[in-house]
Structures are given as C-alpha cells and as structure tokens.
Amino acid sequence: MSKYWKPQPLHTLVIELLQKKQSMQTDADLYKSLLEVYDDLSMSELNRTLMKLEVDGVLNVSGLTKTKRRVELAKG
User: Fold this and answer.
1) Model pTM?
2) What's the per-residue H, E or C state across 3-33?
3) In which domain, by residue range, is 29 found?
4) Where on the phi/psi map is residue 47: left (φ > 0), alpha (ψ -120 to 50), or beta?
5) For a Cys-Cys bond, which of 21, 23, 35, 42 suits 73, CB 3.0-4.6 Å?
6) Does some domain include residue 42?
7) What is the pLDDT of residues 2-27, one digit of tens each?
8) 69 pairs with which residues across the strands?
9) In the chain, how many domains are there?
10) Average pLDDT for 56-75
11) Which of 50, 39, 62, 61 is nearest to 15 (CA)?
C-alpha cells in the first residue's frame, strides 16, 4: 500500500469501471484494469472492496467457475 492517497477512492473506481463495461466483468479483468491506476493493489484489498460494495447493495458477485467470479452492478 502506498503512503499517499490516490485521487480517486478504490470503490468509486470499481463502480465507474463496471459502468463503462456495461456493468459486468470477471474479477480478474477488473483487477487488471485497476492495476493501471493502483499499481500496488492486492487481490485481498480488491476482495475487501467488492465485499463492502456487495453488502451496501451496489453490486453483485457470483461464482462462474471455481476460480473466477462475475462482478456486476446491482439492478435498480
């Protein structure tokens, strides 16, 4: 984790990326896109952010395969 804050919070960037990609991506694709801005992002940090957004009702995460997950914006 960098000792400086990024200009855009991680949860906001996740939502914007999902909106640009027609509201659905795999977690691996989302992670690759986020690494362009957050070069020191860990997968556990992304998982924590996804869980927070899912609990808040902003997005849904479902399993595609054993290792891949589908991340999409919640309807409504």
Assistant:
1) 0.86
2) CCCCCCCHHHHHHHHHHHCCCEEEHHHHHHH
3) 10-73
4) alpha
5) 23
6) yes
7) 566 667 899 999 999 999 888 789 99
8) 63
9) 1
10) 93
11) 50
